[in-house]
Amino acid sequence: MTGRVISERRALQIADITADPEYRFPETFKLGKIRALLGVPLLRDGEPIGVMNLARQRAEPFTERQIELVRTFADQAVIAIENTRLLTEQREALERQTATADVLQVINSSPGNLGPVFDAILERAHSLCEVSYGSLQVYDGEQFRAVAVHDLPEQFADLLRRGFRASDHPVGRALLAGERLVHLSDCAEIDHPVMRTAVELAGIRTALFVPLRRDETLLGMIVCARREVKPFAENEIALLEGFAAQAVIAIENARLLGELRERQAELRTTFDNMGDGVAMFDAAARLAAWNRNFQEMLDLPEAVLAERPSFAELFRYLVARGEFGSADLEAQLSRSLDDTRQEVRYERTRPDGHVIEVRRNPVPDGGFVMMYADITERKRAEEAIRAARDAAETALRELQTAQDRLVQTQKLASLGQLTAGIAHEIKNPLNFVNNFSSLSAELIDELQEALARVPADHNTRTEITELADTLRDNLGKIVQHGKRADAIVKNMLLHAREGSGERRPVDINALVEESLNLAYHGARAEKQGFNITLARSFDPAVGQADVFPQEITRVLLNLISNGFDAVAKRNRELDPSDFEPMLAAATRNLGDRVEIKIRDNGTGIPAEVKEKMFNPFFTTKPAGEGTGLGLSISHDIIVKQHAGSIEVDTQPGEFTEIRIILPRVNAFRA
Question: Residues 630, 646: contact at Cβ < 8 Å?
Answer without folding.
Answer: no
